[in-house]
Design brief:
The chain is α/β, with parallel strands linked by helices. Helix content is 51%, strand content 13%. The chain contains 14 helices and 7 strands. Strands 1-7-6-5-2-3-4 form a 7-stranded mixed beta sheet, with helices on both faces. Helix 1 packs across helix 3 (42-50) and helix 8 packs across helix 9 (146-159).
């Protein structure tokens, strides 16, 4: 009787990808050369970069940081990430160290092939206009300088290219609650421009935007917070990373990979989507409210 090999956890996969990027961006070293400097076998180091299961010590990551010219704060974030490996559900309390240095969610977003997003509150970052994002950032990051605010906006606009690029854009199904359409961010002009932007994006073949109207009530029988289902494209060997559920809240985020969790959120999204207006009616509502706010 054969058993499947243990599956790498999300923190381990993200750690491996981060280490690979640091090697490629900071140095001209090959995997074999790094392994030699670490006094490891080539296979041991390559398994680390691939994110495969295995024990990794804090002192190993510290030494690896020196070899790969990784800054101390990023090495500390790597160690924090490695400590999460054994967790079945990864609760990232954002542990600002990880958030600032590894950008875990954004890397998942970039690697995704398809996404299903539910937002009951506001327009998600991938769909925000610069003015809408800036209005929120000025409240959430009140101590930022104008330069820092500009950098945040630039980063967000760069992020959005994954859904607008010509070659293999990420497919996104978004369900947005009607409350987000009517909740004021910035001013009337900012909101009108944001709603027109959503309507325009919804005409793209890779983007579906539906509005869950007030009259739909609670399709799941209870209030549900924002979540994203991220699916990944198989590699050349036909192997894809497991689906990840990203659940966002104010004090910490959760990354779920268990089959039962994925199944539960897929069913939840299907029920919410079924209760929402269709794509055409949703686009009409967005344009109607935008005209009213203009």
């Amino acid at each position: 009787m054969t058993t499947d090999p243990p599956r790498a956890s999300l923190p381990r996969r993200q750690l491996g990808r981060f280490i690979r990027r640091q090697r490629e961006e900071n140095t001209s070293l090959t995997q074999a050369e790094v392994a030699s400097q670490m006094q490891w076998s080539h296979s041991k180091y390559s398994r680390l970069e691939r994110g495969e299961p295995g024990k990794v010590l804090d002192r190993d990551l510290t030494a690896l940081g020196e070899v790969l010219e990784i800054t101390e704060d990023k090495v500390a974030a790597m160690i924090d990430l490695a400590h999460q490996v054994a967790e079945k559900t990864w609760y990232n309390t954002f542990n600002d160290l990880i958030r600032q240095n590894l950008d875990v969610y954004m890397r998942l977003e970039t690697d995704a092939h398809a996404m299903e997003i539910f937002r009951p509150d506001l327009v998600p970052g991938l769909f925000q206009t610069a003015d809408y994002a800036r209005a929120l950032n000025r409240i959430y990051f009140p101590k930022d300088s104008e330069e820092e605010q500009d950098r945040r906006i630039e980063l967000k606009l760069q992020r959005q290219k994954i859904i607008t690029r010509k070659k293999s854009p990420v497919s996104v199904d978004l369900v947005l609650h009607e409350s987000a359409v009517h909740s004021m961010v910035g001013n009337e002009a900012v909101m009108a421009a944001q709603l027109r932007h959503l309507a325009d994006l919804s005409t793209r073949p890779n983007i579906s935007i539906r509005i869950l109207p007030f009259k739909a009530g609670f399709p799941l029988g209870m209030a549900v917070g924002p979540f994203v289902i991220l699916d990944f494209k198989p590699d050349v060997k036909g192997v894809a990373d497991p689906t990840v559920i990203y659940v966002e809240n104010f004090t910490g985020d959760a990354y779920l990979e268990g089959e039962s969790d994925v199944d539960k959120y897929r069913k939840a999204f299907a029920m919410i989507q079924h209760a929402a207006l269709d794509v055409v009616a949703s686009r009409a509502l967005l344009r109607q409210v935008a005209r009213r706010d203009s």
